[in-house]
Amino acid sequence: MERYIGDAGYVEFYYDRGNLAIGLKFLAQATPQARAMRPRRKGSQVQVSALGFLSAFKIALKESRSFVSKLDEPSGFLVVSLEETE
């Protein structure tokens, strides 16, 4: 994940309802739509709250899952498919 995030401290979420995919755009500076990423206690992982985003788009996840993600080179977005789980 570090190779996608780099020095970013913020992330914007985008939703593609037709393809059931979420796009993540990592940013170095805050924007009105961006959420701050917080480092986890151990390792190089970060966390960010997406509950408001999921609620706004009525994305209901009944349990925790790991999803397949891919970098979309042209846009720079990390795309998470809600249909493909690991």
Blueprint (SSEs and pairs):
Elements: H1 2-5, E1 10-16, E2 21-27, E3 35-36, E4 38-39, E5 46-47, H2 51-56, E6 67-72, E7 77-85
Antiparallel strand pairs: 1-2, 1-3, 2-7, 4-5, 6-7
Structure, explained:
The protein is mainly beta and 86 residues long. A hairpin with a 4-residue loop joins strand 1 and strand 2 (21-27). The strands form two sheets. Strands 3-1-2-7-6 form a five-stranded antiparallel sheet, with no helix packed on it. The chain is built from two helices and seven strands. The mean pLDDT is 87. It has helices at residues 2-5, 51-56; strands at 10-16, 21-27, 35-36, 38-39, 46-47, 67-72, 77-85. The radius of gyration is 13 Å and the shape is globular. 12% of the residues lie in helices and 41% in strands. The longest helix has 6 residues, at 51-56. It has one domain.
List keywords for this structure.
globular; 41% strand; mainly beta; single chain; 2 helices; 86 residues; two-stranded antiparallel sheet
Strand order of the largest sheet: 3-1-2-7-6
**Helical residue percent?**
10-25%
Average pLDDT, all residues: 87
What share of residues are in beta strands?
35-45%
What is the general shape? globular
**Euclidean distance between termini CA atoms:** 15 Å
Radius of gyration: 13 Å
Total count of helical runs of at least 4 residues: 2
How many structural domains in the coordinates?
A: 1
Brief write-up:
The protein has 2 helices and 7 strands; from the N terminus they run αβββββαββ. It is mainly beta.
